[in-house]
Write a structure and sequence with these properties.
Elements (H helix, E strand, L loop, with lengths): L6 E4 L3 H11 L3 E4 L5 H6 L7 E4 L9 E4 L2 E5 L4 H6 L7 H6 L6 H6 L2 H7 L5 H8 L3 E6 L2 E6 H4 E3 L2 E2 L6 E7 L6 E6 L9 E6 L4 E5 L6 E2 L1 H11 L8 H17 L10 H20 L6
Helix pairs in contact: 9-10, 10-11
Length: about 290
């Protein structure tokens, strides 16, 4: 299928894009890589009257360090992060990109587009919640930073206003012992369940089990208590703790039977993926 007719606009500056969003209102959509929006338009799931292309705006495709923090511009592609040397503190970002679709998608899709689309199984959405990211947006009223846990509000719904543009995502702290893993029926498909873990922060985040990326306090409490005194994170005691945290995560989710996917199966995926993410996050030697 082909999209409905629309008017194309090319923005060359952030204020120019914001001005167009303010002028055109709800009838406008922002496009960069277009990996989600174009597909929705082709199936007539989205029918914007105006498309605002921000792909030529300079400065939005940079990855920069700011002390311990990492700033990733909205136009940075998945593949750019995949191939960047982010150092051990943010290696989880690069490693997670291997789960994003296929290479052609990763070379075109952008972090800003993924965050704005707000798919609850999307890797960037889980990583943002896992690492306490701030989504930096700009609108007619100026620039503001929205904590990731507040940004994602429901199914494909965010705190982004219609006249605001995502300009970057700020990851305020390194996570040298973090990992993301997921399960899909075929490599590159949308994940059925995804799990991300940060052992240093005792953080567990799930995708595919709720309308938004879901933190699991019950599993986090198990990790925080069990790992507080461990020097080695892959010895037998740590592995038992990972299993306990995984079981707590599986028990905590609200799962129900769906066509072709039982609640029991989804809980099993949660249990397996959380344990796997914990093991991967501990590293080959499991030392701090």
């Amino acid at each position: 299928m082909k999209p409905a007719a629309f008017t194309y606009h090319r923005a060359r500056t952030i204020p120019g894009a914001v001005g167009l969003l303010d002028e055109l209102g709800d009838d406008a959509k922002v496009i960069a890589g277009g990996q989600s929006l174009v597909a929705m338009m082709n199936f007539r799931l989205a029918r914007p009257e105006h498309l605002i292309d921000i792909a030529r705006i300079p400065g939005l495709d940079a990855i920069t360090r700011d002390g311990d923090a990492l700033r990733v511009g909205a136009l940075v592609t998945h593949h750019a992060v995949e191939t960047a040397d982010l150092g051990p503190g943010f290696r989880v970002l690069s490693d997670a990109m291997a789960w994003v679709g296929h290479l052609p998608i990763r070379t075109r899709g952008t972090i800003g587009g993924s965050i704005a689309h707000a798919d609850a199984t999307a890797e960037w959405c889980l990583l943002a919640v896992l690492l306490d990211a701030l989504v930096v947006v700009e609108g007619p009223r100026g620039r503001r930073s929205i904590p990731a846990e507040e940004f994602f509000q429901g199914v494909f719904t965010t705190a982004l206003q219609a006249d605001e543009l995502i300009v970057e995502v700020l990851f305020p702290r390194p996570a040298p012992r973090a990992a993301l893993t997921e399960y899909a029926e075929r490599r590159g498909d949308f994940a059925i369940v995804a799990a991300a873990v940060d052992l240093d922060a005792a953080r567990v985040v799930l995708g595919g089990v709720a309308p938004v990326p879901l933190r699991v306090p019950a599993a986090e409490a198990v990790l925080a208590e069990a790992l507080s005194g461990y020097e080695c994170l892959n010895d037998s005691r740590a592995l038992v703790s990972y299993s306990r945290a995984a079981a707590a995560a599986a028990e905590a989710i609200e799962a129900r039977d769906e066509p072709g996917l039982s609640a029991h199966y989804r809980r099993g995926l949660v249990r397996t993926l959380v344990a796997r993410a914990c093991t991967e996050a501990s590293g080959p030697e499991g030392v701090g």
